[in-house]
Amino acid sequence: MKRNVLFYAFALAIASFTLSCGDDFLEPQRDTSELTDADFADNIEVNPALVEGSLNGIYSFMIQRFGALGDDAGRHYDIGHKGIDVWTDMLCGDMALSTNTYSWYAGTSNMVFTTNFSDDENEIMWNYLYRVLNTANLLIAQSGGEDAVPETDEAKYILGQSKALRAYGYFYLAQIFQRGYDPNQEILPFYTSDPEDTSFAKVPASQVYDLILSDLTSAVELLDGFNRPLKHYINKSVAQGLLAYTYAAMGDYPNAKIVSESIVNSGEYSMLTAGELAYPGSGSGFNDVNSSAWMWGYDLTADLGIGLVSWWGIVDLYSYSYAAAGDRKAIDDALFAQIPDNDIRKQQFLDSPTETNHLMPINKFFAPSRQVFSQNPMTTDYVYMRVEEFYLLSAESSAKTGDETTAKTRLKDLLNIRMGATEAAALVDPLTGQDLLDFIYLQTRIEMWGEGKSYFALKRNQATITRGTNHAFQPGATVVYDADNVSPEIPQSELNNNPAITVQN
Question: Is the pTM of this model over 0.90?
């Protein structure tokens, strides 16, 4: 099968992450120069270290500042994966910009960038995710293509991670740029490792989700036995986690339950203890990748030189940050009011030492020094996924398939730690039907605050919430899961450079 040389030139440029995101990003290419599979298919067997270097490049890109628009743009919310966490938590209403000084998140809090395709936020998310998946496409091609059967464990694990990363990119794109799951709606341009499968025009969501499911199912198999050297690598359980979320997003709750339960029952991870959930408990602070609950995360070290332009620089009072300098990120006060006083998670959110009415996460996410405006460079770690998510997703999936017994069991497994068994049973046991589903959704919002998962829950539950009073913009606004102002738009740069797209999402 033939390969378009510009596809590989483009992908190689992505892999080195030196390509600047100008107006020609993802512009359709029409060159007729060709290379054959023979030029690439044996790379992973002959020199796996070379291919693994590109794989590591993707993981590094996930924490890179200015990776999507470039240094010249200087957008301080262009920070990779964790930047998406902030935007989606704000769009669903659970994270409040309680004071606005520097205006980096004014358009998010005001829910206006989502209705203007020329705003940077749309382009940053689009560019970041397509860079991840297109580089993964290169690695899949170098592994032998879509149907490759690796001959060594090393090659198998590289292909498994590459497929999982491509699925990650497409899953986030589909969740963010489609208002609600509709398999027939055309939503995204489509790229695989085979340019003959490329569609510059948008393809139906069913085609995108079919590839996500295929990639993750394959990745789970390929990564069986993979003992990753660091937690920022995707292993089998992370691929299972992405697969569970994909099934749930599609409304396939029987399979979402099966996969969630397999993660919970694996014994590979254990839930956070009560002390770990909030300062001043023993081991508290969502800041250490070595936590037994963390399934996927990034170990930040001083030599990485990560400073203000980072997730910690956005959220943490105790870092050299916008949060300390005047752009407060807080839990929505209407959500906070729904946390029982005997729930330790209520202690995660407090007013800062010098101000009131902000409910900042100073006892959940914090630099261990606990000195305001202090940590720089950032050495506290990034959490991407943890095991508690799948207790909650199992509960949700069980309830939606009529298995309320399992749903309540998983809820109480979680809440027993947070408030005690007696109190948890008193809340959970009487619930049935929609009341049980609503309670699971509420617990997901409380538990996952600041971790980028509440937006997915809003959409798959087709929810409507009312924001509290502590938002700098639009306090009290109604947030509807499929409203225009909740899902971003395909960016202007893509529409300008891709004539195959003629209508917005």
Answer: yes
